């Protein structure tokens, strides 16, 4: 099997980095090197990573520069033919790398293999499944409409392709992943592994929790994508609608407060302006508008109690059991 370089950017990740590294060490594919980029951590991240004894683990420390710069720094040190990125709080199932490499063998034109993603909370409990979308071949249009890769910890990428597109844009953080996938998809084919093999940890500190930065950077990515690969005005409106739908839902995740509620209102208006048909999803509209009302009208502590009740109601109405610990 070819060597796979796994690049783990780590900033103040002392609570999760060991578990993340362990999920690579326990892969069924053993021909890997693990490159941890300590991005100026001020906690014991470096000490925790250094305490793991395995010849495949390499650690490099730099001053803080952000996740995109850390990934590019890791790429410089990588010796593998294929590159996988893994955030220092996310996890992989043991067969993740093995099955992605096998997918390349079945689709020789592809340079990016990706799996499905599921969400876990800060304590490792299952929250919900991701989109579980399967797209193969030329996926650029589908990626514009929705970032179905869903996580920077997901794809396995031919190293030469990453070099040819120029690495991650270091001026971006919250939308850097989407920007990279779009640049790759504009030139190369993708292949999907239809199995949930990436566990994305949601926390208040996640970059995706900053919906304001996500909005600003998403607009930059969209403008750049349509400049490089022109499309119709109707397609651009579809892309904006889908992105603002996503941002609306992100704004209403986790702890609700009045500011996020007001922000969700603005995102919701933009989503509907670009795609009025979204209003036709009655069940979803009830949930969204209910959450907005709770966030805007109720005190923060009351909002959280009401939100918990809504989540329990939604789970029961879908016949779902209570979340279980992910091992």
Describe the structure.
There is one protein chain. Strands 1, 2, 3, 4, 5, 6, 7, 8 and 9 form a nine-stranded mixed β-sheet that branches. The chain has helices spanning 17-25, 45-50, 67-77, 96-106, 140-145, 159-165, 176-185, 211-228, 233-251, 258-274, 282-297, 300-317, and strands spanning 4-10, 32-39, 57-62, 82-85, 91-92, 110-120, 126-129, 156-158, 189-201. With 327 residues, it is an alpha/beta fold. It is built from twelve helices and nine strands. Strand 6 (110-120) and strand 7 form a beta hairpin. Helix 8 packs antiparallel against helix 9. The chain is 45% helix and 18% strand.
Topology order in helix (H) and strand (E) letters: EHEHEHEEHEEHEHHEHHHHH
**Number of strand elements:** 9
Q: Which stretches are poorly predicted, pLDDT < 50 over at least 5 residues?
A: none
Mean pLDDT score: 91
- The shape, in one word, is globular
Gyration radius over CA: 20 Å
The proportion of strand residues reads 15-25%
The computed structural class is alpha/beta
The major beta sheet can be summarized as: 9 strands, mixed
Distance between the termini: 27 Å
In summary, what is this structure?
The chain has 327 residues and is α/β, with parallel strands linked by helices.
Features:
single chain; 327 residues; alpha/beta; 9 strands; globular
What is the topological layout?
Layout: E1 4-10, H1 17-25, E2 32-39, H2 45-50, E3 57-62, H3 67-77, E4 82-85, E5 91-92, H4 96-106, E6 110-120, E7 126-129, H5 140-145, E8 156-158, H6 159-165, H7 176-185, E9 189-201, H8 211-228, H9 233-251, H10 258-274, H11 282-297, H12 300-317
Parallel strand pairs: 1-2, 1-4, 2-3, 6-9
Antiparallel strand pairs: 4-8, 5-9, 6-7, 6-8
Helix pairs in contact: 7-8, 8-9, 9-10, 10-11, 11-12
